[in-house]
């Protein structure tokens, strides 16, 4: 689950009972994205997809970087 539960777009999970498929226990953080450089906030809705396997979750992160270039003007 992608949620803004703590103010950032982070991944959370909820355990399910295998027999009933009903939630068991609280919503638990899986991966926090509280970094200025890596973010999920600028990804549009269709880009925020998850791929889940037995032992891993794959999801997109956008890297935010910028440069300031200075040049001396010739007169």
Protein described:
The chain is an all-beta fold. It has one domain (1-65). 0% of the residues lie in helices and 24% in strands. The chain contains no helices and seven strands. A three-stranded antiparallel beta sheet has the order 1-2-3, with no helix packed on it. A hairpin with a 6-residue loop joins strand 1 (2-3) and strand 2 (10-13).
Short description:
The protein is an all-beta fold. Helix content is 0%, strand content 24%.
Detail the topology: elements first, then pairings:
Layout lengths: L1 E2 L6 E4 L14 E4 L6 E2 L11 E2 L4 E2 L3 E2 L12
Antiparallel strand pairs: 1-2, 2-3, 4-7, 5-6
- Structure summary, number of beta strands: 7
Query: Biggest sheet, strands in spatial order?
Result: 1-2-3
- Count of separate DSSP helical elements: 0
Chain-averaged pLDDT: 77
Alpha carbon gyration radius = 19 Å
Class from secondary-structure proportions:
mainly beta
Intertermini distance: 58 Å
Q: What is the beta-strand fraction? A: 15-25%
The unreliable regions are none
> Which outline best applies?
elongated
Order of helices and strands: EEEEEEE
Largest sheet: 3 strands, antiparallel
Q: How much helicity do the residues have?
A: under 10%
Compute the number of structural domains.
1
List keywords for this structure.
single chain, mainly beta, three-stranded antiparallel beta sheet, two-stranded antiparallel sheet, 7 strands
């Amino acid at each position: 689950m992608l949620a803004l539960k703590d103010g950032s777009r982070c991944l959370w999970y909820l355990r399910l009972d295998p027999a009933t498929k009903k939630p068991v226990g609280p919503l638990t953080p899986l991966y926090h994205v509280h970094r200025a450089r890596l973010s999920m906030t600028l990804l549009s809705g269709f880009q925020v997809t998850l791929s889940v396997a037995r032992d891993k979750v794959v999801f997109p992160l956008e890297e935010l970087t910028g440069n300031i270039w200075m040049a001396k003007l010739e007169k």
